[in-house]
Each structure stands twice: as structure tokens, then as C-alpha cells.
Design a protein that fits this description.
Diaminopimelate Epimerase, Chain A, domain 1, 18-stranded mixed beta sheet, 2 domains, alpha+beta, 296 residues
Length: 296
């Protein structure tokens, strides 16, 4: 059933090939069963693999499904950007300013913007953030293998979702980021009443002075111990930063570095605007083609 199906490998939130987060994009997804999609996602063994179900628009967007190596997810950031890029480059084969993906969380618009530096930043507008449970500082520190003073007491530890929920944990220093190690047993007990066990930790100290924050994302429950670049989680972070005025303003545009600790340096661009009733969040980055091939 899979024979002859075309696939691509792209690096998303990268500033060059072989950086950022790897993504497999598979065409002709309508020829595959759900079980076959899951099997292929496990075979590719990237954080996510996407399947383009149709190369014709439906309701102004393209139907796409997203799988991790162990499960299907309703939304994810780098798969959204990478898949939109592949649709434009390989299916449409012409410049367009905007492409929409039809995902289980709703239709997600993706726009293409060439900056003054000639770097093409691809932006996705995420759903308005939803703010859920908060967590105790001491218990979360223990679950991350850190002293409680490593967590910035000025801000809450809170579950946030723009389509996929993450627990946002503000840390004080880069040294704390480097030391963070998730104790899955302690985290499971702490998050028993939560909708997620996925954790994003961040701090204002960075490796590259051109960036504003350093981030790590731990997603063991999705079969990914640590993700090199996570658009969905950083969308949650952008909403969190805006709500709590982390930068002292309702509006900001920043650069976030991720993946340094696992050898996949990534850069994500975040925009947020909390001046309106619903916080508006956008996440962007660059995409590079690494390979194209055919299933046999």
C-alpha cells in the first residue's frame, strides 16, 4: 500500500541544514490507514511525522495528520510549519503568501515572510492560550532534580495550551537549565490532575547573545525524551510571557534558542500581543530541505 509514496525530510526552526527539529512529511496520506501512518511514524522515529491527506484544498486548507513515534497528536508546531513549506515548494511549486492546514484543533494559518536579511521566516498563528492548573514550586523543583531556588518565584508554574498543553516552568539561570533532569515518577504524581505531563523550562540567560531566552522541552509521554525545537510549546510560552508581562510589555517579538543541550541548535521566533481580549500568539522559524525520497 505504501509503495511509490513520496516523502520529504526537512529541518524546521533551523538556521542551516542539520540543525533544528527534523520532520518527515509524507504525501498521499489518503492511501494509508491510521495503523500504517503510525507504523511509518515509528519507522521515521522523528519527534513527528506528518501525512498530507489531499493535495486539493478543502474549506481553504489542506487536511493533515500528525503522529509522534507512539501516538497521533491534534497539533504540533514544527510539523505545521514544515508541512506548509513542503506544500508550497513541492505541491504548489509557486510562491504564495499564506497556506492553511486543517488540523484536529482547527484551521491553522501559516504565512511566509522574507526579512531584510533575506531569511524567510514562516509564521503560524496559534489558537489563543488557555491557562490551566498551577503547581507548587518545591514539588516541581524536586521532579526536575533542582533546588527550589532554581525556579523564579516571581512567576507561576502553570499549564498552558494553544492546542497542545505544556507545563511552563520559569528558571533563573542557564546553569539550572543544564542541570534539569525529569524524574518521571515524581512528575506523574505531581501532574495526576493535569491534562499533560509535558514540561517546558526556560530562563533569560542564553548561549547566543542574539537570543532572548533559552528553552528545553521534555515530552517523554509522546515518546520523545527531549525535543530539539517545539513550536507548540513555545506558543504556550509566548502566551505565558504576555499574560505575566515577563518583558514588561503587552507586545513583544523575541528569539528563543532550544536544542543546544542535545546537539540540535534551533531558533524560534515568538510574537505575542496581550493588548486585546484574547492573547494573540505567533511562532515562526526557517525550514531547510534535507532529503526527498520514495517508499518502496
Amino acid at each position: 500500500m505504501t509503495k511509490g509514496i513520496i516523502f520529504y525530510i526537512v529541518d524546521v526552526f533551523a538556521e542551516a541544514k542539520y540543525c533544528g527539529n527534523q520532520l518527515a512529511v509524507i504525501r498521499s496520506g489518503n492511501r494509508l490507514t491510521t495503523a500504517e501512518m503510525q507504523q511509518l511514524a515509528k519507522e521515521m522515529n522523528y519527534s513527528e511525522t506528518t501525512f498530507i491527506l489531499s493535495e486539493e484544498e478543502r474549506d481553504g486548507g489542506y487536511d493533515v495528520r500528525i503522529f509522534t513515534p507512539v501516538t497521533e497528536v491534534p497539533f504540533a508546531g514544527h510539523p505545521t510549519l514544515g508541512t506548509a513549506w513542503v506544500i508550497r515548494q513541492e505541491i504548489l511549486q509557486q510562491p504564495v503568501d499564506r497556506i492553511c492546514l486543517n488540523l484536529p484543533v482547527g484551521q491553522i494559518p501559516v504565512s511566509f515572510d522574507t526579512e531584510a536579511t533575506n531569511e524567510e521566516i514562516i509564521w503560524m498563528k496559534q489558537n489563543p492560550p488557555f491557562f490551566g492548573l498551577s503547581f507548587e514550586r518545591e514539588k516541581m523543583a524536586e521532579a526536575l532534580g533542582l533546588p527550589s531556588e532554581a525556579i523564579d518565584f516571581r512567576y507561576p508554574i502553570q499549564e498552558v495550551s494553544t492546542g497542545l498543553p505544556f507545563i511552563i516552568v520559569p528558571l533563573c539561570h542557564l546553569a539550572d537549565i543544564k542541570k534539569a533532569r525529569v524524574n518521571q515518577q515524581l512528575l506523574a504524581a505531581l501532574t495526576e490532575s493535569s491534562t499533560t505531563k509535558d514540561v517546558l523550562v526556560f530562563c533569560p540567560e542564553v548561549y547566543d547573545e542574539g537570543n532572548n531566552l533559552n528553552v528545553r522541552v521534555f515530552v517523554d509521554c509522546l515518546g520523545i525524551p527531549e525535543d530539539p525545537a517545539t513550536g507548540s510549546a513555545n506558543g504556550c510560552l509566548a502566551g505565558y510571557l504576555a499574560k505575566y508581562r515577563y518583558f514588561g510589555t503587552d507586545q513583544f517579538q523575541i528569539r528563543v534558542e532550544q536544542g543546544m543541550e542535545i546537539g540540535r541548535p534551533s531558533v524560534l521566533h515568538l510574537k505575542a500581543d496581550a493588548s486585546r481580549r484574547d492573547i494573540e500568539v505567533e511562532v515562526g522559524g526557517q525550514v531547510f530541505m534535507v532529503a526527498r525520497g520514495e517508499l518502496v
